[in-house]
Amino acid sequence: MQDPVYKLIELTGTSTTSIEDAVDKAIQRAHQTLKNLSWFQVVETRGSITEGKVRQWQVTVKVGFTVDNTAATSA
Amino acid sequence: MQDPVYKLIELTGTSTTSIEDAVDKAIQRAHQTLKNLSWFQVVETRGSITEGKVRQWQVTVKVGFTVDNTAATSA
Amino acid sequence: MQDPVYKLIELTGTSTTSIEDAVDKAIQRAHQTLKNLSWFQVVETRGSITEGKVRQWQVTVKVGFTVDNTAATSA
Amino acid sequence: MQDPVYKLIELTGTSTTSIEDAVDKAIQRAHQTLKNLSWFQVVETRGSITEGKVRQWQVTVKVGFTVDNTAATSA
Amino acid sequence: MQDPVYKLIELTGTSTTSIEDAVDKAIQRAHQTLKNLSWFQVVETRGSITEGKVRQWQVTVKVGFTVDNTAATSA
Amino acid sequence: MQDPVYKLIELTGTSTTSIEDAVDKAIQRAHQTLKNLSWFQVVETRGSITEGKVRQWQVTVKVGFTVDNTAATSA
Amino acid sequence: MQDPVYKLIELTGTSTTSIEDAVDKAIQRAHQTLKNLSWFQVVETRGSITEGKVRQWQVTVKVGFTVDNTAATSA
Amino acid sequence: MQDPVYKLIELTGTSTTSIEDAVDKAIQRAHQTLKNLSWFQVVETRGSITEGKVRQWQVTVKVGFTVDNTAATSA
Amino acid sequence: MQDPVYKLIELTGTSTTSIEDAVDKAIQRAHQTLKNLSWFQVVETRGSITEGKVRQWQVTVKVGFTVDNTAATSA
Amino acid sequence: MQDPVYKLIELTGTSTTSIEDAVDKAIQRAHQTLKNLSWFQVVETRGSITEGKVRQWQVTVKVGFTVDNTAATSA
Amino acid sequence: MQDPVYKLIELTGTSTTSIEDAVDKAIQRAHQTLKNLSWFQVVETRGSITEGKVRQWQVTVKVGFTVDNTAATSA
Amino acid sequence: MQDPVYKLIELTGTSTTSIEDAVDKAIQRAHQTLKNLSWFQVVETRGSITEGKVRQWQVTVKVGFTVDNTAATSA
């Protein structure tokens, strides 16, 4: 197909260690059901605090992937 | 699972009565197929007008929910 | 149903010719599996360049459609 | 006319009771002189405070209406 | 007058063919009653969909024009 | 004082019933220690969900108040 | 009237001397036809350059004014 | 301390003469109780109008200052 | 208390090593005087450069915490 | 080189015919001196008006290109 | 050339006296090497503070200028 | 020179390991030709994905540096 179409979904990954790890977690989870993930963009970085320390990094990403002709863009 | 992953979807609820009711309608509808809805954020508040009165409130929300290991992040 | 609920999905259409064609491509692709598409909004217009010419227009759109009672808002 | 043109004006409605009432007030007032109001979008929600209570809700909306061929888009 | 003042109005032009045509339609319509239009800025590009095709492009523009001393900035 | 100075603080009020009630709660709480609250602006509207219903509205507001000469702008 | 309604218009004032003067120019001009101007907000500050010097400050403001019951919110 | 921490507060200064003077007023007032102010950023420029003239410039600034070890980041 | 109120403050943490460390520094410092910190959101990531290397990461966060009934929302 | 670095420049292309043509003009011009242009993003779409018609489309794009080791990132 | 191309660069001018002077300084400096500066837009207004007074205004502007056929758009 | 002028350029650094490393890469590259880099600001964080893992972090930064009197602000 000459003109591919991509779909973007929005995920929030979490991690106790780093921003990068939270992004990795989100992408790994999406990869279990979507095999053609192509790119991501960080939308927001938040987190929760316990006793004066960062307990959990929460990073929201938009993830883009190609929609091929057999897989439906189910809503 | 120690590091949960969330997915966000975007819905527009409508109501003839109030902003809160439009949000409720969107969440109730999503709950029919997604049982683990966790939080929402209002993205936009619009509406249509008929004869100088608000006919319909249209409130767009992002709704977040946990993605467990058995349910797929189908696109 | 008196108070309809809509879902919005985000797609990137591509085209070698124009912005309008890229939007058309994204909507045609979504229409293969979603029959009740209602409106769209252009979110971003980007593209790739080869040898000093636009090779591909990449236009990201949000597409809204009614969620009826039988079709699930599957995530 | 096949390709209608709309004009948008910006109004701030006020109310002592609710956000919805402030929007209604703005639209009712505009309707006194503009009979073809079609849609609105909430732009900003502010208010004034007296003795620790909300005294007045101030909601700014953009209101769109069709410009027909006989009515001028007077500035 | 050494220091001119401009007014900006917001219009949504529509077209079944292209973004450019929708902008043209909005400007042509404004020109019927405002003869000194000077510049425009695209604010938003949306559209409606029918049966998987773009039915109508809806492009919102801000249009600026000089306010001379005889013409009032009527609200 | 001819040229007053205002300070703005950011609060998130919560309510199980409505957006307006959440704003009221935030302002009432601030009024316990700040007697000269003057205006507010809604910054964000979020909420939590339990079993497909809105459990809690969470509305973030900026609240402005006059800083007089005796009260310090303590940080 | 207990719940006043305001209208906002957008103007660009110009000046060869300062930002403040450009805002003053826009408001003075609007005051020729609108007697109840109440507040303004600076939206954008631009300018033109001639031979390495600022030739003209161009400051765009939104100006709000009360809409009374006799004056129409003509579009 | 090798890695200093700063706090930002938001103030609105007012002036009948200029934007710069309104900023100065806000900073002078904050300096009465906070001795280590370091930088500021203009967030918003508004004002009130009386009889077609700017009566008061209202400039909102974020002001940053170092939080030393003895002074508390009291809320 | 059924409807808690939260306050948000804005801090800039700094670090010579990483973004995460700068956030940690800001939260640790706030924790010295505020014991009920709950969540944070990254607002801006900047830094200073010395001899072609990042010398200091400067990360601005909004930090939210519950305001209980005995602690005042002092300004 | 395993970790390429890109530079982005901002250009405004103009055209009497279309948005796409204005983007093409900007990219063709940049290509005269920069041979490795890679991608672009539309930042703003404006234009000038003469006698009720669009006289010139003015489209601002950010253009990205790889910075190789021999070519300097001259400022 | 019928369809000119412009380039935009971003500069921060500084001044101890006013916002306008900081913009002038940035433009004068750019004019030393770029003779065809055409327009500017204020992007951000910040400053530094010493002993409770504004020590330096720091105003960031985007400056546009025509790219002629002999001068290269060097990166 | 009492009132320095700064220039800002926009770069995208890439890295297979972390966000911080991508920023370092961009700054090191710019330092090869620009010796007076002063500060940076992260504008966007994106990346590419291969087989469900982050393959490349792509971080766009604005980098500021002093423009001295001998070095030209070449465009």
Number of strands of chain A: 3
| Range of helix content of chain A | 10-25%
Total helices of chain A: the number is: 1
Q: End-to-end distance of chain A, in Å?
A: 22 Å
Tell me the β content of chain A: over 45%
Describe the sheet with the most strands of chain A.
3 strands, antiparallel
Shape of chain A: elongated
Helix/strand-derived category of chain A reads alpha+beta
- List segments of chain A where confidence is low: pLDDT < 50 over at least 5 consecutive residues: 71-75
Strand order of the largest sheet of chain A: 1-3-2
Biggest contact: A-B, 25 and 16 residues
What is the H/E order of chain A?
A: EHEE
Using only C-alpha atoms, the radius of gyration of chain A works out to 15 Å
Oligomeric grouping of the chains: homododecamer
Mean pLDDT of chain A: 91
